[in-house]
UniProtKB/TrEMBL annotation:
The protein's name: Exosortase
Organism for this UniProt entry: Natronococcus jeotgali DSM 18795
One CC-aspect GO term: plasma membrane
Top-level taxon in the UniProt lineage: Archaea
Statement: the UniProt record of this protein carries the keyword Protease: yes
Topological category with respect to the lipid bilayer: Multi-pass membrane protein
Subcellular compartments: Cell membrane
One function term, GO molecular function aspect: peptidase activity
Catalytic machinery residues: 193, 234
Length: 334
């Protein structure tokens, strides 16, 4: 969810270039970021197809190159997360993505074929997310539907600001009267507010593993349902905290404006969005993962690969969590 000032639907970040454009928007205008993402996902797919043809050796360097491209894509997102979104968590993760992706590619190139299941999961995540990112009518439907549902959640709490035009002409902006609110600001829904990113993560993981279709569908329904509900709660929280100044206490304002360089009127949005919500989102993802594992232990296999990339240590999550099914889909030994 993004937070414009009351008279504007866009907020210029701290890094402003000549002509009033942000650093991130300038980079995104000059670099084919969406194209880079599509190329990386396509390279993942080609590597997986080559591997299925039983020619394992050529697939490894191709998959390794795809991982490197994927890391470069996330590096191009750093200016946006740092300057526009002002999100420390997302900035750090985007910075870490390049070395982690490069290392994953190196491991694949060196013969760790077990990483192909993680490669497949990431490719499927991209196929779920990128169409919504790049196809206008899909993006518009997701954003406007989420805005309507969020507004309904606000109405349940006694607030009814109405919806007005936000970015790209979508009916996604919560039309609070700036004369009646504490900060004079409001928010509007963007694609990141739809929960699609988290849904794509679980969709890719679930689709990538070998397991009975019935359990995969059950795990998918559980993950999507919980993400949808929690995302609406998050949107309502941010959408109300921003105009009504839930975090405009003097000590909070002083800290955020002094050490983070934020505008005073934007403090409640930044605290609600970048700190409270993003921290709780990490907790929620861990909790959802635990629930999904109970239905589909097979997703432990790509998760073990993630842990190996991060730590260099082999983990047996199947045994640690007492899963009833092996990560390859078979029953556990008695």
């Amino acid at each position: 969810m993004s937070a414009p000032s009351a008279p504007s639907v866009a907020f210029d970040a701290v890094a402003v270039l000549a002509g009033g454009e942000t650093l991130a928007s300038t980079l995104q205008a000059t670099l084919p970021i969406d194209a880079l993402a599509w190329i990386a996902i396509a390279a993942f797919g080609i590597a997986l197809l080559v591997r299925r043809s039983d020619i394992a050796l050529p697939a490894r360097p191709l998959a390794g190159a795809a991982w490197l491209l994927f890391g470069v894509y996330w590096l191009t997102m750093v200016p946006y997360y740092y300057a526009d979104a002002q999100s420390p968590l997302q900035t750090v993760l985007a910075l870490a993505a390049l070395p982690l992706c490069a290392y994953t590619g190196y491991l694949l190139w060196s013969g760790r074929d077990s990483l192909f299941v993680l490669t497949k999961a990431v490719a499927l995540m991209g196929l779920i997310y990128l169409p919504a990112e790049t196809i206008p009518f899909v993006r518009q439907w997701l954003i406007e539907t989420t805005a309507v549902q969020t507004h309904y959640g606000m109405e349940l709490l006694g607030y009814s600001p109405g919806l007005s035009e936000g970015t790209a002409g979508y009916e996604s902006r919560f039309a609070f009267d700036p004369e009646e609110t504490v900060t004079g600001r409001t928010t509007y829904i963007v694609l990141a507010c739809t929960g699609l990113g988290s849904m794509a993560i679980f969709g890719g993981l679930i689709a990538a593993v070998a397991a009975p279709l019935r359990r995969k569908l059950a795990a998918f329904a559980l993950a999507i349902g919980v993400i949808w509900l929690l995302n609406l709660v998050r949107n309502v929280f941010i959408g109300l905290a921003t105009p009504w100044g839930w975090f405009q206490q003097d000590v909070v304002v002083s800290f955020v404006t002094t050490y983070l360089g934020a505008e005073e009127a934007r403090v409640s949005y930044l605290v609600a969005h970048n700190y409270v919500s993003q921290t709780l989102s990490v907790v929620a993802l861990v909790g959802i993962t635990y629930l999904v594992v109970k239905l589909l232990p097979e997703i432990l296999e790509p998760l073990e690969e993630v842990l190996f990339v991060l730590t260099g240590t082999e983990y047996d999550l199947e045994t640690a969590l007492g899963a009833d099914v092996r990560t390859d889909g078979g029953p556990r030994d008695p």
